[in-house]
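Title: Comparing notes on inverse folding

I've been comparing how different people in this forum approach sequence design from structure. To keep things fair, I'm posting one structure and asking everyone to reply with a full sequence. Here's the target:
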């Protein structure tokens, strides 16, 4: 990819809603100085239960809004959109597009010693088989076991991330995977890092958790360096937020996902 015309242009990030703020948080700490324009498609969340065709259509709509505002690189923070729509986005957009699946798969392969890796995500992400395929293309002898864990999403949004209820849900979902003797577990959904304490407790000390958000932040840094697109300090970075519905709710819940106040949030229409 050639260097962007404007290295001061923001990185674009989109997700079905607040979850992608965990990815934004990783990118903010890995790349201070980069401006970010974030779009949460809160009018159409969740993506995890939708068909591939619908997710591709939604993802293209979100990406067009961000590209129209002059981003230099697009990060698909949503695992479900990464699973279904990255190919279509790369085909249509004239800028680099990074999903969260390849970086997460890469980190999982680096982390696992036994080669037995668990992947958890939304129903759509697991059904797509994208994590499984990405891991196996990097390490053909690995064994991947996966499971959709849909209830983790509302628990994270409710702030119900500690205590008996999420602990019971984590065991219900994970015990079957743990019986397969995994040594690494990929948190293949934007919301799961908020539940990492209860997931780690249920998984036990022999299982390493892989957070795709951190791996994706490294991948974004690498892509910017490779294309000569990194912003030069000391120009101050700017963070801007767009949503397709309920800016107030997004700000309230998003605070926990980003770890700080979001400031003003603009309402946009996405076709
Ligand atoms: N952001 C989604 C993901 O990472 C989870 C929420 C949803 O289902 O839209 O797959």
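Reply #1:
Here's my take.
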């Amino acid at each position: 990819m050639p260097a962007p015309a404007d290295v001061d242009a923001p990185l674009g990030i989109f997700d079905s809603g607040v979850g992608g703020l965990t990815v934004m948080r990783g990118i903010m700490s890995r790349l201070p100085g980069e401006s970010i324009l974030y779009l949460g498609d809160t009018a159409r969340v969740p993506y995890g239960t939708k068909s591939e065709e619908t997710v591709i259509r939604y993802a293209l709509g979100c990406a067009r809004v961000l590209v129209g505002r002059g981003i230099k690189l697009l990060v698909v923070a949503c695992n479900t959109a990464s699973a279904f729509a990255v190919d279509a986005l790369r085909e249509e957009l004239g800028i680099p597009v990074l999903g969260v699946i390849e970086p997460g798969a890469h980190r999982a392969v680096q982390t696992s010693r036994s080669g037995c890796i668990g992947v958890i995500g939304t129903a759509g992400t697991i059904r797509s088989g994208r994590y499984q395929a990405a891991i196996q293309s990097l390490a053909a002898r690995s064994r991947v076991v996966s499971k959709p864990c849909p209830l983790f999403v509302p628990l994270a949004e409710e702030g119900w991330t500690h205590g008996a209820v999420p602990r019971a849900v984590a065991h219900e979902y994970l015990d079957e995977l743990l019986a397969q003797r995994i040594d690494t577990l990929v948190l293949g959904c934007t919301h799961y890092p908020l539940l990492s304490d209860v997931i780690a407790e249920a998984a036990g000390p022999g299982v390493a958790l892989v957070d795709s958000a951190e791996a994706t932040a490294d991948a974004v840094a690498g892509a910017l360096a490779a294309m000569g697109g990194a912003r030069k300090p000391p120009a101050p970075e700017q963070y801007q937020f767009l949503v397709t519905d309920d800016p107030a709710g997004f700000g309230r819940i998003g605070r926990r996902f980003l770890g700080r106040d979001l400031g003003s949030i603009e309402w946009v229409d996405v076709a």
